[in-house]
Amino acid sequence: MLMRLAFVCSMAPLLAAALAAAQVPQKPQPPAPTPPGGAAALARIAKGDMSGVQTTRQVTVRTAAEWQKLWKEHSPDEKMPAVDFNSHMVVGVFLGSKPSAGYQVEILNVRPEDNDLVVEYAQKQPGRGMMTAQMLTEPYDLVAVPKHAGPVRFVAVSR
Fold first, then answer.
1. Under DSSP, is residue 13 helix (H, G, I), strand (E, B) or coil?
2. If we measure between CA atoms, which residue out of 157, 155, 156, 152 comes closest to residue 59?
3. In the predicted model, is pLDDT for residue 13 greater than 70?
4. What angle do CA 95, 89, 114 make, to 5 degrees?
5. Does residue 86 form part of some domain?
6. pLDDT for 38
7. Residue 1 lies inside a defined structural domain of this protein
8. What is the domain extent for residue 47?
9. Radius of gyration of the chain from its Cα atoms, rounded to whole angstroms
10. Are the CB atoms for 157 and 121 separated by under 8 Å?
11. CA dihedral of 43, 48, 52, 53, whole degrees rounded to 10
12. Domain total for the chain?
């Protein structure tokens, strides 16, 4: 019994560190060059399931002022990632408030189509009968893409 208690106590810091690491947002990655075939390169800025944005929406951010406003709503306590708005813009998808864990969104591809920039994204939700943490989540994905002056269309795709 005493050995079991010692083992559990020794594992507690490791478990706490693992949980803390899971909550760290991803660091922005620099955009890659535009690949052949017309698809635009994308660099993930932030992706996760905890956001201050409580409503479902897709966003296109073309200026530093718009970015500052969005970031303040999304994650006011975290440092705002730098984006060079001279050459890039930010597109993102927020799923809004969800009743449990297990919901996800991911921007998969960004491509030009006629005068539009098409942002393809996929959503995932927990399967029927799947056990998930019963907590409110707000899944989101934000990426930087090369600047595009025309309209931006968001298209949900299946994986």
1. helix
2. 152
3. no
4. 90
5. yes
6. 55
7. no
8. 25-156
9. 19
10. yes
11. 70
12. 1
